[in-house]
Amino acid sequence: MSDTGLVLKDVYRVFPGDITAVSDVNLEIENGEYIVFLGPSGCGKTTTLRMIGGHDDPSSGTITIDGELLNGVSPAKRPITTVFQHYALFPHKSVLQNVAFGLKMQGMDKTAREQQATAAIELVGLGAMMHRKPRELSGGQQQRVALARVLVTRPKAILLDEPLGDLDRLLQMKMRVELRGLQRELGITFIHVTHNQEEALSMADRIVVMGDAIIQQVGTPTELARHPRNEFVAKFMGDNNVLHGTIESASGGNVVIDTPHGKVEVPGSGAAGEKGSMAIRASAVTISTDAVPAVNGVRVRLDFVEYLGDSIKLHLDFNGEPFLAKVDEERFGEVQAFEGKEVTATWAVEDGHLLEQ
Amino acid sequence: MVISLSSNDHSALDEALAEVAQADSLMGGSAAVVATTGPRRSPLMTLAWVLPGTIWLLLFLIAPLLMIVLVSVWERTPVGFAAFSFSFDAYGRLFETSVYLDTLKDTIFRSLLVTALCILIGYPIAFYLARCVKTVKFQIALFIVVLAPFWVAYVVRIIAWLPVLGRQGVINYFLVDVLHVVGEPISALFYSTFAITLALVQLYVLFMVTPIFFQLATLDNAAIEAARDLGATPGKVFREVIFPLSLPGVLIGCIFVFVLVMGEFATVRIIGGGTIQSVGTLVNDYYTIPDLPAAAAAATILVAVMTVGVAILLRFSKIREVV
What we know:
heterodimer; A: 357 residues; CATH 2.40.50.100; 2 domains; five-stranded antiparallel sheet; 9 helices; B: 323 residues; 71% helix
């Protein structure tokens, strides 16, 4: 076990009524990492965050930071602070008082704490708003105040609970870059919770995908996007097609799976007769009017063309089951002509990959 | 009051409504809840919502108030007053002796004292109910228990102090017959400022508990969690976050208690036993003389003082900024 960074070991959280919110969580987070907990609501990600922050206690297991046990330590005494979901600013205090609050609690004298708070407020670009009350600020500005309020206490780690959830999309995109830039500049561990996979991919050093109270997969954005470990991750990361079937044969590092969609060949190993599932990213699928090949091709109907600006998402129908493809924006005229018609969807063997059962 | 039907007058109407609601609470009536948000209604619907309340207030608040002010400037006759005459004699009669002014001062002092005591006693009760009782069920049960005195009639609640504080009351019994600390029963226990203050606090403390309770119960827990997260001890969480955020409730409670005690009449009369006056009992005295214009003048000044008091409370606390 590592002596530095934040370590969660065998963490469980069981709520009264035998509801398991978090199960068997083992995770090592290095200092200075940007970690995103990703998962649907109720997957245990917020509970995990609350346990790290000290707002909830594990039923069993340990949480340590730089080797120091955090179990039972109150949130006030942890070197970790939280940016709450709806910011939880103090409505009766000005921006300056909000940001200086943590330092005031540490017993710092007024001049010193206001000086440091001012620096933090300027860091997040709100120098002109110093004496406003939170309700006089926009959502994005409130978010920055919340951030400055935790930064000023110089914690070892900052927890962010759906930090961009209250902002409109354009502002979200802007804040993603700002948050990431700020984190790099400060070198503090950020642990960010979201259900938005695009947000997770764009910000994280590593993503922790949670589902059904357990960690489904931990990996870098590219690992998760390219190699989702199981069906849950593949589906949650979006734009993945998952096919199930039975392994027919294995040879040369590839297996052939017999699925209701036809035979597919994917890299991997397995024994003939076992169940096999594979995932193929929508962007690896292309459509044409060619004949259906023997493997990795299906005859589908193009139901709907969704223009996304930089790419085109094709909603395909295979005997009533949805199938997705993503092609270049330049092909819009070509693919639109196929709308409502039968086409062939194909992909390369190396783009597919075998999922864990 | 003229109610315009043009649609861009909604905000004016809302403001008028808010003012009416404020006037209502000034008079110690139930606080009207004014919804200013929500979907835009048709002018006719707005009128339908506003009309009953407006008529009610016109008939039972504005009209009587105007009547009192009018009577106060009408001349006194042996049986009542001469309508539509005009003089300030009634006000002159009030200030011929120092009785009225002294009583007014006493009443203001008593109101402030009772309000302060209600905060001291009511706040902890409200705090316990709202923040220490964990389940909502238990919270409601306890709140009903706190409300229990209100199941008993007002006069009964006042008279109930007699067997406690009276010459033959429980306290005197203990002092004289059990502890033998005094030889004679102390009558001052009952007919005294002390007894009146005690009874008034008991009567009105709930008007303090209730708004504070609701303010505390609906506090943003995230702000409290954030304060703790930033290193605040429980005491600091209270001082820095919970207490400031509960001030609107305290303020509403103060308005209730202050206004109600300023207008007090029955408690002072029964427990004071005629030896202690309030502006309310003075008004009654003038009424029985009869000197109706002086009674009206005394009441007019009382209403004016109360209005100024509430205005000061609202002004200094900037209620709208806190909420």
